[in-house]
Amino acid sequence: MLKDQTASLNENIRGLLSNSLRVSKKSAPEIYKSFIHCQNALGLEDKQILPFIYNSHEVNAYCSYNGNEIVIGLSSQLIKLMSTDELIFVIGHELGHALYEHFRLPAFGLSQGSISASRSLQLMSWSRKAEISADRAGLICCNNINAATSAFIKLSSGLGEPHISLDIDDFVSQLDLIESFETDNQVNDCYSTHPLNPLRIVALKNFWNSESFINHQKNKNSKKIKDKEMDEKIFEILNFMEPKKKEQTKKTSSNPDYFLIYSSYYVANADADVHKKELLSLKDLCDDKTLQQFLSDLTANKKNKNFLENLVNKEAKTFIKSKKGVKCSTLQKIVAVARSDGELSSDERNALYHVASLINIDESFVDQILKFLD
Questions:
Q1: pLDDT in tens, 60-99
Q2: Domain range enclosing 146
């Protein structure tokens, strides 16, 4: 993952030096060789790479970059789990974030609320595309599609052999099961700032067979496909996770804007202070006529303390029947609106959790989006 670049890189390094192991020729010679290999493979010889291993039971890695120094953190559990080639893929992926300068993502603007809700959603989409690009860098480094794809299975499960078999086709087939649960209200959301791991494997395999990759790596591959065809396939893959702006449901004639408007205002008003930026963001995402009618009704019923909450609860009973994708994309928008003023009170956060629970979306999805925006 790409770590937030608004924090001081020096502070990050100081913390790692205090509590982690710096990877060097002496401390971890084999892992150090992997870093040097990736640095050379990606043409980053002019950058200073500072690799660390930190103690954690989580299987994780991150990259921090300021345009010159690249800090890579690898969890101890990830080191234990990965083979050499799998680790090279992970390291190459993290260095790919630096190579493509993903640190230029305007995280500061997001955290200050200076970017509209619709732009925030676009940036989350951009983040998913950034992960695909970084995956390509990892594959260039390891030049081993089996190692790259098995790394995803280990990252997803936290396990390796002999506990599980690293069957790529079986893992990718989970996508079919995801689609089969399209109307199951208990299934967690599939939208996030990272593409689904099975989707990333499919995208990576397309890149492996692409004309550019084969020519660059001088591989002999009979399945070579044109770059244009590869791009079309990968954009099709990414579209699987794109929130649909005006998608209607098959099960209900309810307008998704109703739930979006009622719930967004309900969350914004949780601390009894609806900010102008929140209203502007809501207007940016929904039908203006529907919004103005709601605001007029709200004014007319201002003496009814339960009017807004009743609207949300009533609409939720209909909206819960919507497709999973519609619910998830709408909740994404509600979160973006709530965060558009640069602040999120504890009352607003609890209101977000409540709205999510009304349509059977786990609160961890809310946390995931807020983590990106923060």
A1: 999 888 778 899 999 999 999 999 999 999 999 999 999 9
A2: 128-239
What is the rounded CA–CA span in Å between residue 336 and residue 294? 20
CB contact at 8 A, 134 and 93:
yes
Within a domain: residue 122? no
How far is residue 239 CA from its own chain's centroid?
Answer: 14
**What CATH number should be reported for the domain holding residue 57?**
3.30.2010.10
Asked whether residue 135 falls in the same domain as residue 228, the answer is yes
Same domain, residue pair 321 and 356: yes
Q: Cα–Cα distance between 15 and 38 in angstroms, integer?
A: 25
Q: Tell how strand 21-22 and strand 48-54 pair up.
A: antiparallel
Asked if the peptide bond before residue 162 counts as cis, ω within 30 degrees of 0, the response is: yes
Show the DSSP H helices in the chain as ranges.
9-19, 29-41, 76-81, 84-99, 107-111, 117-142, 145-157, 168-172, 174-180, 197-208, 211-217, 227-239, 256-268, 276-285, 288-300, 307-319, 324-338, 346-358, 363-373
Question: Token digits for 68?
Answer: 């010159």
Domain boundary (211, 239, 267) is at: 239
297-306 long-range contacts (CB < 8 A, ≥24 apart) are 298/265
Global pTM exceeds 0.85: no
Same domain, 17 and 104: yes
Between the CA of residue 110 and those of 67, 77, 107, 113, 318, what are the distances in Å? 20, 32, 5, 5, 32
Residues with Cβ < 8 Å from 91, sequence gap 6 or more?
Answer: 34, 35, 38, 51, 61, 72, 74, 138, 141
Residues 6 or more apart in contact with residue 61 via CB below 8 angstroms? 1, 72, 73, 74, 75, 78, 90, 91, 93, 94
Residue 241 in tokens: 């996770």
Residues 364 and 264 in one domain: yes
Using one digit for the tens of pLDDT, what is the confidence trace for 291-343?
899 999 999 998 888 899 999 999 999 999 887 767 877 888 888 888 877 77
> Does residue 24 share a domain with residue 84?
yes
Residue 107 shares a structural domain with residue 158 = no
| Paired strand residues for 65 | 70
